[in-house]
Amino acid sequence: MDTKLDGKVIVIAGGAGKLGSIGEVIVRTLAREGARPAIIDRSDRGHALVHELQDAGADACFVAADVTDEAQLTAAVATIVERYGRLDGLVNNVGVNDGIGLTGSLDDFLDSLRLNLASYWLLTKLCFPHLRERAGVVLNIGSKVGLTGQGGTSAYAAAKGGVLALTREWAVDFVPHGMRCNAIVIAECYTPAYQEWIETLDDGPEKLRAISDRIPLGNRMTTPQEIANTAVFLLSELSSHTTGQLVFVDGGYVHLDRALLTQA
């Protein structure tokens, strides 16, 4: 099925993560669909990723910037617009579950909000005038923590709850411009960061199995590719009448009554 993403310029914040991370996989998947990924990230990994994509025939670019720095982010968007002359989509995919709870300082709490929430607002604000010209799409990457809580991570929970609220707010703002805004809500996704956490535990394999057993569909964790596939759908014309939606790609983790399910 044709996603009609060919030639479209999609900004991906946090797209230069480690191999197999959600942002990195979204970038690669968009490139395969013929889109032109424009990566904004503070990691120098973006250079190697873009060179690899270009060697494979894709049109991609990378701009190094700290998404919490307004001047850097403003310059990054200007650079992308100068290169391509258009923006068709934006993926807000920055987030660190930093464990800032009730014992943390106010400065730490506010810093977490700047990274995990305010950066979404700022980048969307900067991209909006250009997206408006193309009836573009905004996709926010969210977390179930913003709805279910987790414990010990007040700042991250508040930020991710805010991301979901902004998704609905922006969908309303975008209606007059024919634009759309949706969010993907992730629960247990086996990213490189998740694997690194598991490897720090003495009982890592047992912990991973216990978590997987609580995921209804297949008793397994979501893959980054499954997140990326849904991202491509929501950025494409295949979802042309879908806006303001919180799309859960989680194997039923959040909503299904696991007590009533038999393990596979």
- Mean pLDDT figure: 95
Classify the helix fraction into a percent range: 40-55%
Strand order of the largest sheet: 3-2-1-4-5-6-7
- Per CATH, the architecture of the largest domain is 3-Layer(aba) Sandwich
First and last CA, distance: 31 Å
Q: The biggest beta sheet, please?
A: 7 strands, parallel
Give the domain tally: 2
The H/E string reads: EHEHEHEHEHHEHHHE
Name the structural class: alpha/beta
Gyration radius (Cα, Å) is: 18 Å
**What's the total number of strands?**
7
Quick overview:
It is built from 9 helices and 7 strands; from the N terminus they run E-H-E-H-E-H-E-H-E-H-H-E-H-H-H-E. By secondary structure, it is α/β, with parallel strands linked by helices. Strands 3-2-1-4-5-6-7 form a 7-stranded parallel β-sheet, sandwiched between helices.
How are the SSEs ordered, and which strands pair?
Blueprint: E1 9-13, H1 22-32, E2 36-41, H2 45-55, E3 61-64, H3 70-84, E4 89-92, H4 106-133, E5 137-143, H5 145-148, H6 154-174, E6 180-186, H7 192-199, H8 204-213, H9 224-235, E7 246-249
Parallel strand pairs: 1-2, 1-4, 2-3, 4-5, 5-6, 6-7
Walk me through what this model shows.
- The chain has helices at about 20-30, 45-55, 70-85, 105-135, 145-150, 155-175, 190-200, 205-215, 225-235; strands at about 10-15, 35-40, 60-65, 90, 135-145, 180-185, 245-250.
- It has about 260 residues and is α/β, with parallel strands linked by helices.
- Helix 4 (about 105-135) runs parallel beside helix 6 (about 155-175).
- It is globular.
- Strand 2, helix 2 and strand 3 form a beta-alpha-beta unit.
- A seven-stranded parallel sheet has the order 3-2-1-4-5-6-7, sandwiched between helices.
- It has two domains: about 10-185 and about 225-250, NAD(P)-binding Rossmann-like Domain (Rossmann fold); about 190-220, no CATH class.
- The model has no long low-confidence stretch (mean pLDDT about 95).
- Helix content is about 45%, strand content about 15%.
